[in-house]
Amino acid sequence: APELRENNVFFPRGGSALDASATAQIALLAQVLNTQVMAGTCLRLVGHSDSSGAASTNAALSERRAEAVRKAIAAELGSSAPPMETAGMGEDAHLSELPTTHVAQRRVTLWAKSCDS
Question: What is the pTM (predicted TM-score) of this model?
């Protein structure tokens, strides 16, 4: 599989602002991305929501979450930030082992892969 690493940044209900926990997670991720091992990495940031609220609202919210994470990574790494693409899945790709309203459903999943693939 082209994915080298999966990680998640979590969000409060209904929000796309990064809280202290999310900011700390992104800082840690930035340290990892700034290593030689991760050189040549491209990121795909996929936003998700829980099932609370309208599906159309959740779709837009998940896109804003992915964009918030992209901006935060770019701010952390500056010119050394990897290429990043964002997408929003809304409530369509739940973690199946958890209730659809669980806090872990409100996340951005980060997929890292070689930019060559």
Answer: 0.89
